[in-house]
Amino acid sequence: MRGHLRRRGSAWELRVFAGRDPVSNRKTYRTRSFRGSKRDAEAALAKFVLEVGGGGHAALDTTVGELIRQWFELARADLSPSTVRGYERSINSYILPKLGNVPLDRLRVSQIDRFYAELREGGGEHGGPLATATVRQVHAVLRRALQQGVRWGWTETNPATLASPPRVRNRQIESPDPIAVVRLIEAARTTNPDLATFLHVAVTTGARRGELCGLHWNSIDFEAGTVIIARSVIEGSKGAILEKDTKTHAVRRVAVDTTTIQILREHQVRCRARAEACGTLLPSTAYVFSRSPDGAAPWVPNEVTKAYISVRKSIGLQSIRLHDLRHFAATRLLAAGIPVRTVSGRLGHSNASSTLGVYAHFLVESDRDAADTLEELLKRSSSPGTVIDGSQRANRSKQRGPRSTK
């Protein structure tokens, strides 16, 4: 490890070779200012050389922003397009403006905690509070980047691992009322029949918004009454519309009722009529919900949400989100006694425990119905006109004595 002194005004610049950048392979140096005699500066330089050589300080004279940029450039290839989009927003909107110019070796846990507190108080739109989940995502990005800095030898520690991001409180699932769901679909049918079909299929399949946008006509078996959900449409970086596999990377076949099949048939007739009017055909590979006559371009998930909100407001409903239609499907099926594993498969959860985790609160409430059902079963099974409690059963058992073992 080499180092040398250079006079800079009234101070000395200590300069130490710190190896090569693991990304660019360029030579890198650490510098430090020192005030004092030349002899003291030489002693400080010797100590500085040992510090850099032993990895006790950042191996590069760089900033948090430089680390974030280089880490993300390498990491983005292994991330999904939607994750890339979210990370870009966290980096460009929050991390770089506040921490980008901070020297990497001067970043402290207390500084990160203050950063999170500022985001929570005024980091949102128009200076309002930033959602806790968004702050958590900012924390995840910063922590991952700093951890890579540790692996590269750019910094000895990762202060983000000791920081205190806000807790995300689980939102209690509230299933929409069936009457409200029907009102929403009927309201959409009067102004936008295609959207009404979308909402109806969302309710009867429990599919995610992006999965319905990624549905193709050849994924629907009209005779068997099934829908294959294999792909999902997402918005990638810079507004690009992309198609990828489902959230759990699994393909699932969902059975649908005859009414849903009929509604899909009617929707297909409308789509074919539009295509014919434009002098084109509707191939089997076309999107079921498309913004082009030939079905080549899928609906954009965020645009679907905007259209849904417009319909919802038109009938005076404020609290039902589009995603709540998925909750409606899940909770009603569970209430009807459909096995959790079956519901989990329809929703596309990775396993039944994920379903239980999301709908645990609802299942606790419905547990009272289970208790009442068992009570009625025992009452019907006892002697006519007689209800036997625990003490009565015990007394009768004593009177009969032990059963014969013959």
Give the SSE layout:
Blueprint: E1 3-8, E2 11-20, E3 27-34, H1 38-53, H2 64-75, H3 81-99, H4 109-122, H5 132-152, H6 178-191, H7 193-205, H8 209-213, E4 220-221, E5 226-229, E6 231-235, E7 241-245, E8 252-255, H9 258-277, H10 301-314, H11 324-335, H12 340-347, H13 352-358, H14 360-381, H15 390-400
Antiparallel strand pairs: 1-2, 2-3, 4-5, 5-8, 6-7
Protein model, in words:
The chain has three domains: 3-47; 64-162, Orthogonal Bundle (DNA polymerase, domain 1); 178-338, Orthogonal Bundle (hpI Integrase, Chain A). The chain is 51% helix and 11% strand. Helix 2 packs across helix 5. Mean pLDDT is 85; it is low at 55-59, 386-394 and 402-406. It has 406 residues and is mainly alpha-helical. It has 15 helices and eight strands.
Strand content: 5-15%
User: H/E element string?
Assistant: EEEHHHHHHHHEEEEEHHHHHHH
Give the tally of β-strands. Answer: 8
Helical content class: 40-55%
